[in-house]
Each structure stands twice: as C-alpha cells, then as structure tokens.
Design a protein that fits this description.
The chain is an all-alpha fold. The mean pLDDT is about 90. Helix 1 packs antiparallel against helix 2 and helix 2 runs antiparallel to helix 3.
C-alpha cells in the first residue's frame, strides 16, 4: 500500500489492529491454556528423578508438540488472511489510481476485516478439537 496516502495508512492500521485483536483473543482463549499444559507436562518430565537427561529431553519435546502445532496453525491462518488481502489490494493497483485505488482498497479492507470473525470461529473450532 502507498504509505504516503493517509487514507491508505489508516486502512493499514485498521487491518493491523483487527489482526492484533484476533491474535490476542486466540492467544488468551487457546494458546495460553496449551502453554500451561506444556509447562506442567515439562515439569513432570523434569521431576522424574530416575530418568536420564536424554529421556527428560524427549519427554519435554513431546510436551511441546500440541502448542507448537496450534501456534503454527494460527500463524498460517493469519498469513493466509494477509496474503488474500494483499492480493485484493494488488488487483486494485492494477485497475486504478487515486480515488479509485483508495475506494477499491477500502473495499478490500472492509470485506476482509468482515471475514475475520468467521475465520476466527473456524480456527477456534479447530483448536478446540485439537490440531
């Protein structure tokens, strides 16, 4: 997007704010719970007095799998969202400039930000089922 245009910059900030809010919600509602589970599991691994260092390391690695998968899933979903938005804006650039570009870009932002709640619902469903 053209950073010199205040309206386009405002659109960028709107998208950024929507994404940050979405990520914070997913973190608070799902990822932190998985992080708590991971730390509790890792603590139990470390508490095994008879385990070798290698066995403890393998145990801790297994504890991290669910959280790592969930984080990757969320990051991929958000990356896909951002890529789709960028493609929409690129199409606007191909077909216009000035006010036309601004209106088209604004429509891209509006439509994509409007899709976030449904995308988040789908991501929550997947996270609840376990990634």
């Amino acid at each position: 997007m053209d950073c010199d245009n205040p309206s386009l910059e405002a659109q960028r900030e709107r998208v950024g704010s929507a994404i940050v809010t979405a990520m914070e919600d997913l973190d608070r509602d799902y990822l932190r719970k998985l992080q708590i589970e991971m730390h509790a599991c890792a603590t139990a691994c470390c508490a095994e007095a008879d385990a070798s260092a290698e066995a403890v390391e393998r145990c801790v690695d297994r504890c991290q799998v669910r959280l790592t998968r969930a984080r990757c899933f969320v990051q991929q979903g958000m990356s896909d969202f951002e890529n789709r938005l960028e493609k929409c804006v690129q199409q606007c650039r191909l077909h216009g400039s000035g006010d036309l570009l601004e209106r088209c870009s604004s429509n891209c932002v509006d439509s994509h930000v409007g899709l976030l709640p449904e995308m988040l619902r789908a991501m929550r469903d997947t996270l609840e089922k376990g990634v």
